[in-house]
Specification:
The protein has about 325 residues and is mostly helical. The protein is about 50% helix and about 0% strand. The chain has 15 helices and four strands. The strands form two sheets. A two-stranded parallel ribbon has the order 1-4. A two-stranded parallel ribbon has the order 2-3. The longest helix is centred in the first third of the chain and has 27 residues. The radius of gyration is 20 Å and the shape is globular.
């Protein structure tokens, strides 16, 4: 079973999140940072390439054995589909075509959703932007684990199961913590993916579709790529709520590891975040960071000081009269 997690509650803090303050300081000291804002002109080509590769592999596996399908789904499919979700992360901040072309960003996200197997692109955007606006605010930030998760997944075996089930928690937790009405674009997303799944079944086989779905679920769970879910905000050092990762996997994840920099400047595309760190290195180099995503998963599972409770929480300073966010989700952050 493993050692029991030592924490029995979240780390409650009574200060605002640090990113807005640091952003203002950096902007005042280094106004050239504005030139890094914009979009990544290459992102759309990566999305097209990932869809083409995954559909090709799905076709090649349409009559294959289940062992081959499962191994390929974990090693290749899980990696590519996770990178697609990382691309969604860029897209939801309008970093594929810029803030002036919101519809183009949404359309690209839905197109990339074809290889995931189930509709999620638009819903991801809806809830991810609230993670930025309400970071660590109880009842508002959908990235925060629930009280039940902290209580139940309290030893090494349970934490390994929690990591394996991460795609389920990330899909269902927002619906429990902060349910929101379905939008028109979510309906469009559902219709497009239903049609895509039908064509995959018609022109390939059910094994092809299951390869894509299984790859998504495995790639978001107990997989080296999924370590960033834990690395970004779980409190490995007391008092530190956001961490960057500076390692080789940034090369295939649009520099997702530069998470401190991303929260400070969500309008800077991942391709320019290393430049931001270089410009304002005195702000970022002294901060705690990760150098290995697999080590993050290992430490999370086997270190009794770390578990789902290792998250900083703050009381919400937002009015909850109707449970909604007045901010336009497509505004610049």
């Amino acid at each position: 079973m493993g050692a029991h997690v030592s924490r029995s509650e979240f780390e409650w803090v009574y200060t605002d999140e640090p990113h807005a303050t640091r952003r203002k300081e950096i902007m005042a000291k280094y106004p050239q940072v504005k030139k890094l804002m914009g979009h990544d002109p290459n992102l759309k080509y990566w999305v097209f390439a990932m869809v083409a590769v995954q559909l090709t592999i799905a076709y090649m596996l349409k009559d294959s054995s289940w062992p081959l399908i499962l191994v390929t789904a974990y090693v290749i499919g899980g990696t590519i589909n996770h990178v697609m979700l990382v691309a969604w992360h860029e897209i939801c901040h309008n970093l594929a075509f810029g803030h002036a072309r919101v519809l183009a960003n949404k359309a690209l996200g839905i197109f990339g959703n074809v290889i995931i197997g189930f509709p999620a692109s638009i819903s991801f955007k809806k809830y991810h932007l609230e993670h930025h606006k309400f970071q660590a605010q109880d009842g508002f930030d959908p990235d925060l684990p629930t009280e039940w998760e902290g209580q139940f997944f309290c030893n090494s075996l349970a934490k390994a199961l929690w990591v394996f089930l991460l795609p389920g928690f990330y899909a269902l937790r927002p619906l429990v913590v902060r349910p929101k009405p379905i939008t028109d674009f979510e309906i469009y997303n559902i219709v497009v993916i239903a049609i895509a799944d039908f064509f995959i079944l018609y022109f390939m086989t059910y094994k092809s579709l299951l390869y894509l779905i299984i790859g998504t679920l495995l790639g978001l769970g107990l997989h080296p790529m999924a370590a960033h879910f834990i690395a970004e905000h779980y409190m490995f050092i007391k008092g530190q709520e956001t961490y960057s990762y500076y390692g080789p996997m940034n090369a295939i994840t649009f520099n997702l590891g530069y998470h401190m920099e991303h929260h400070d400047f969500p309008n800077i595309p991942g391709c320019n975040l290393p430049k931001l760190k270089q410009i304002a290195k005195e702000y970022y180099e002294p901060l705690p960071s990760h150098s290995s995503w697999p080590k993050v998963i290992w430490d999370f599972i086997f270190d009794p000081a770390i578990g789902p409770y290792c998250r900083m929480k703050r009381r919400s300073n937002r009015a909850r009269d109707n449970g909604s966010c007045d901010d336009d989700p497509d505004k610049d952050m």
